[in-house]
């Protein structure tokens, strides 16, 4: 898809990957970018950066753990060309199995249920307007055998499967759904893994792995949006190794 002149929604855009993607969409010529997050102060700063990059913007505080509110918002605002389902949360402490049922419901609703609801509504709107592109932020943990944060890994694996199951929408609705799989990324979400900061296990991960910049991931999102030769359900994993960004491309029928 040629991004120039298109409209977009980016969830989780108060900082990190969402902010980088929103700014990059504006720089690529997007006409308008709707910014969605629970962090209103962060949204205001992202809006300033997006507008400086040349796009109109609107700020929307939305709690994606509230699935009904998410559905209502997307019914009102979801008629766009591009949707980046980027918002996501980690479990924090305590971890499974000590986490309570309400916390489990919260992470599942933010990471999976609201993403599916947003995609469903956006696909219907995109089909009516002639097509569109949806990029779901997954994680490279979906390619592995496990992860310390069991609920985060489980929800991201679910998003990966959902993205692959949406492959047929390209043919049926002219809506291409793709997956962005970031490796370790230096974003504020890392500071929510522990009690008031980074957990000990996250500190160990950071000590033994090179973190991507949010812009590294945003560049991959833009590549997924712009390349209409890609099949529905295609995905790309992005990691950094020895200072170099590495891409691993995959398809709906591969793990």
Automatic annotation (TrEMBL):
UniProt GO MF annotations: 3-oxoacyl-[acyl-carrier-protein] reductase (NADPH) activity
CC per GO annotation: cytoplasm
InterPro entries: NAD(P)-bd_dom_sf, SDR_fam
Organism: Sphingopyxis panaciterrulae
Official protein name in the record: 3-oxoacyl-[acyl-carrier protein] reductase
Family, as annotated: Belongs to the short-chain dehydrogenases/reductases (SDR) family.
Domain of life the protein comes from: Bacteria
Enzyme class, UniProt record, top EC level: oxidoreductase
Pfam families: adh_short (PF00106)
CDD domains: SDR_c
PANTHER family assigned to the protein according to its UniProt record, in alphabetical order: 15-HYDROXYPROSTAGLANDIN DEHYDROGENASE [NAD(+)]
EC number(s) on file: 1.1.1.100
Keywords on record: Oxidoreductase
């Amino acid at each position: 898809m040629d991004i120039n002149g298109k409209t977009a929604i980016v969830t989780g855009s108060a900082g990190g990957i969402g902010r980088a993607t929103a700014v990059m969409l504006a720089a690529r010529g997007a006409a308008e970018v709707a910014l969605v997050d629970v962090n209103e102060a962060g949204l205001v700063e992202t809006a300033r950066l997006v507008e400086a990059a040349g796009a109109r913007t609107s700020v929307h505080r939305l709690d994606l753990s509230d699935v009904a509110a998410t559905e209502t918002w997307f019914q009102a605002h979801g008629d766009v060309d591009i949707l980046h389902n980027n918002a996501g949360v980690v479990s924090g402490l305590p971890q499974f199995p000590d986490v309570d049922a309400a916390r489990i419901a919260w992470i599942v609703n933010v990471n999976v249920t609201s993403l599916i609801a947003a995609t469903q509504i956006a696909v219907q709107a995109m089909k009516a307007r002639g097509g569109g592109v949806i990029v779901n932020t997954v994680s490279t943990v979906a390619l592995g055998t496990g992860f310390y944060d069991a609920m985060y890994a489980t929800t991201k694996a679910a998003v990966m499967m959902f993205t692959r199951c949406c492959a047929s929408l390209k043919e049926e609705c002219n809506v291409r759904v793709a997956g962005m799989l970031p490796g370790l990324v230096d974003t504020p979400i890392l500071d929510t893994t522990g009690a008031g900061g980074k957990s000990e296990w996250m500190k160990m991960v950071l000590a033994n792995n090179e973190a991507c910049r949010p812009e590294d991931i945003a560049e991959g999102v833009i590549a997924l949006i712009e390349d209409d030769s890609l099949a529905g359900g295609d995905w790309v994993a992005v990691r950094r190794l020895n200072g170099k960004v590495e891409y691993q491309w995959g398809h709906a029928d591969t793990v």
